[in-house]
């Protein structure tokens, strides 16, 4: 009897969610989908905006490490952690690095979180949702600085292994691979589970074997270039 009562309450709760109006439209937005922190600079700034023209919002920002644990102290600090954005207003958040606390021979990975907090509604039966955005932040040491537009992803190596490929990343950079196929179109549009390779690492992915593989990755600007590979035996390098 008790189980039936609990089930009935749960059903009623979900029905209520379906019929209540939701204020879940994203309002507070970032100006980019990833952040590259140049180690030659003391800080990096991001623009945020409240796209809602009628209501103010609070914007709460914080950082996480590579294991997605919240940073409570250095090596990076974000300010302000909370701010109020008036309707249609724009603002900034700044990330500052503490000197000497991060590796200088390879990139470090962090996550930037931005949560919007709506004002309390004066209307009855309104379910409000605090939406949250999470993007990757790469700290790139000054020693790794390259010319704008330069490519290091072409140093990736594909090794044919049973049931797929082992993708080798011999670089000091994080590289996100979003596609692999036998043509540029298949690499861009095919079914592939995105993988992110940390510096000087490799990862095994399931795939058919291709005579001329193509690989698609995400660059610093969120673009999706595709590399063509040529193979010699079980080893494939970018053409």
Structural overview:
The protein has 239 residues and is mostly beta strands. 10% of the residues lie in helices and 44% in strands. It contains two helices and 19 strands. The protein has helices at 2-19, 184-189; strands at 22-23, 28-30, 34-38, 43-50, 57-64, 76-79, 82-85, 90-97, 108-117, 127-128, 132-140, 157-161, 164-169, 175-181, 195-197, 201-206, 214-218, 226-232, 235-238. The strands form four sheets. An eight-stranded antiparallel beta sheet has the order 15-14-17-18-19-12-13-16. The chain has a five-stranded mixed beta sheet with strand order 3-11-9-5-7, with no helix packed on it. The longest helix has 18 residues, at 2-19. The protein is globular, with a radius of gyration of 23 Å. The N and C termini lie far apart (68 Å).
Strand order of the largest sheet: 15-14-17-18-19-12-13-16
Overall pLDDT confidence = 89
Instruction: Outline the low-pLDDT stretches.
Output: 10-23
From the alpha-carbon coordinates, what is the Rg to the nearest angstrom? 23 Å
Order of helices and strands: HEEEEEEEEEEEEEEHEEEEE
Binned, the helix content reads 10-25%
Query: Looking at the structure, what is the overall shape?
Result: globular
**Percent of residues in β-strands:** 35-45%
Number of helices: 2
Secondary-structure class: mainly beta
Main sheet summary: 8 strands, antiparallel
Beta-strand segment tally:
19
Gap between N and C termini, in Å? 68 Å
């Amino acid at each position: 009897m008790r189980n039936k009562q609990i089930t009935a309450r749960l059903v009623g709760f979900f029905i209520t969610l379906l019929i209540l109006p939701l204020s879940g439209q994203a309002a507070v937005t970032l100006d980019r989908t990833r952040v590259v922190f140049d180690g030659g600079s003391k800080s990096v700034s991001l623009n945020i905006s409240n796209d809602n023209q009628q209501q103010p919002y609070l914007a709460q920002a914080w950082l996480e490490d590579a294991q997605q644990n919240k940073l409570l102290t250095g090596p990076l600090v974000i300010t302000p952690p909370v701010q109020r954005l008036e309707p249609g207003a724009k603002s900034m958040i700044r990330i500052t690095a503490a000197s000497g606390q991060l590796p200088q021979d390879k990139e470090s990975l962090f996550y930037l979180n931005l949560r919007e907090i709506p004002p309390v509604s004066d209307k009855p039966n309104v379910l409000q949702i605090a939406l949250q955005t999470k993007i990757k932040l790469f700290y790139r040491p000054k020693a790794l600085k390259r010319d704008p537009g330069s490519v290091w992803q072409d140093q990736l190596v594909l090794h044919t292994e049973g049931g797929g490929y082992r993708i080798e990343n011999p670089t000091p950079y994080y590289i996100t691979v979003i596609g692999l196929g036998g043509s540029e179109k298949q690499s861009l549009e095919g079914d592939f589970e995105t993988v992110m390779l940390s510096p000087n690492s490799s990862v095994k992915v399931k795939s058919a074997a291709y005579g001329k593989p193509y690989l698609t990755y995400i660059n610093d600007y969120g673009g999706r270039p595709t590399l063509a590979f040529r193979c010699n035996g079980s080893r494939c390098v970018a053409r």
